[in-house]
Amino acid sequence: MQEPMYIKIHNQIKRDIENKKYKVGERIPAERQLASKFNVSRMTLRQAIKTLEDEGILERRLGSGTYVSSQKVQEKMSGIMSFTDITRSNGQVPSSKLLSYRITKPSLSEKEKLKIQDTDNVLRMERVRFADNVPICYEVATIPYELVSRFSKDEISSSLYQTLEEKGGYKIGSVVENIGAAVANENEARLLSVKKGEPLVTRRQVTELSNHYPFEYVRASYVAERFEFTFEK
Amino acid sequence: MQEPMYIKIHNQIKRDIENKKYKVGERIPAERQLASKFNVSRMTLRQAIKTLEDEGILERRLGSGTYVSSQKVQEKMSGIMSFTDITRSNGQVPSSKLLSYRITKPSLSEKEKLKIQDTDNVLRMERVRFADNVPICYEVATIPYELVSRFSKDEISSSLYQTLEEKGGYKIGSVVENIGAAVANENEARLLSVKKGEPLVTRRQVTELSNHYPFEYVRASYVAERFEFTFEK
DNA sequence: CAGTGGTCTAGACCACAAA
DNA sequence: TTGTGGTCTAGACCACTGA
């Protein structure tokens, strides 16, 4: 048995919701019924329901039943959700342009954030990201080079997380983000097609692997009038 | 029995951690031992552990044990944590100055965000918030007046959430926040002691009660060079 | 009232970590 | 190999909701 039963049930119920077998706002069958349908004990069934509740997909109401929630809550939290996903969920087409891709020595802040030595190399990438071909974000990402030296440029620049998890055997751990504001300098103004002095939302992100080693430091600036972060709790 | 057993155990273990009976990074006793100590089944004990894990207080390691986590993760998420709490946790002294407190008709955006009618009254409060007497944030909060008409000005302006939950019998539900950027206009510049055109972090927040009625709409502007939001996941 | 989710028991077997 | 957390069972009684 590869997957635990409660995960299988979780996935089945999720599919049933996607396939509109259970519709938004509607009540799903009672726990005792579902338990008997899946041939598991009620505790196991409840474990499946619990994970769906944690994802914001189901909502329990005491004495009344379990309902399909209207909101897809959790995943709107930024950071875990990539620019690509956010843009797509807004019904826009994401794209990006790689401005530079260099193996070099770390800056002071990179050294500190990535907890590496002067002698280590880093890979630094600059990008502009677009939604429907309108520039939204200028982004600099830095990665300790030894972590990715065996991957191709394309594997790194187009889907770093996936490459690291699937081909590198690494697991992503925690993410820390700082969000602030700044005004566009000349370089940012040019790259993002705004005037110098226009407001930008700034984001710094340090991502760690599950072994607590930092593997990525990102500094990004978003055009405030074209982008904002949304959080739901 | 007022509180469920697993909540009591949750609280007891939390106290034990606060009292350094279990220290950060250390392993706590095994589930079977704790279950027997508290005279409950292992499933019940696990439920208590689970809630502590969800709060980021404990960390399970398969095959090894359950450990006291070093990070107090969850609560750094902004919004749930008030300005007061954030400032205190930075070791600074929070204060605030109420600039205005008026019962009036809603603006267009207030009407929309709070889902109320033209004929309803709202309570609108303007504040500047300080950390160590340095102005950090200018904030306008709007509340449907009927929700708070029976409370005193002090109960509303100094601890709204507490008043609503303890004296109003309401329960806070979801919170949606949007974070962006802007530049200071003349009014903001004067109130926050910055120059016009300086970058501000903007936040809009709509808070709902557990019955899905919006009860608060807040627009806040933070001086970017003195404040940033931090998120950990 | 009947039906629902919330809590709880006293076991069981498994996979994984560390010695 | 021993001890740990992960999963699971087949019941039980409770408090709450809604007709």
Shape of chain A: globular
What average pLDDT do the residues of chain A reach?
A: 85
| Number of β-strand runs of chain A | 10
Task: Please compute the radius of gyration of chain A using only Cα atoms.
Answer: 22 Å
Pattern of helices and strands of chain A: HEHHEEHEHEEHHEHEEE
Strand sequence of the main sheet of chain A, in spatial order?
A: 4-5-6-9-8-7
Name given to the CATH architecture of the largest domain in chain A: 3-Layer(aba) Sandwich
Quickly count the domains of chain A: 2
Strand content of chain A: 25-35%
Biggest pleated sheet of chain A: 6 strands, antiparallel
The CATH class designation of the largest domain in chain A is Alpha Beta
Structural class of chain A: alpha+beta
Share of helical residues of chain A: 25-40%
CATH topology of the largest domain in chain A: Chorismate lyase
Question: How many helical stretches of chain A?
Answer: 8
* Largest protein-protein interface: A-B, 32 and 32 residues
**N→C terminal distance of chain A:** 35 Å
CATH-defined superfamily of the largest domain in chain A: Chorismate lyase-like
- How would you classify the quaternary structure? homodimer
Protein name (chains A, B): HTH gntR-type domain-containing protein
GO molecular function, one term (chains A, B): DNA binding
Pfam families (chains A, B): GntR (PF00392), UTRA (PF07702)
Keywords (chains A, B): DNA-binding, Transcription, Transcription regulation
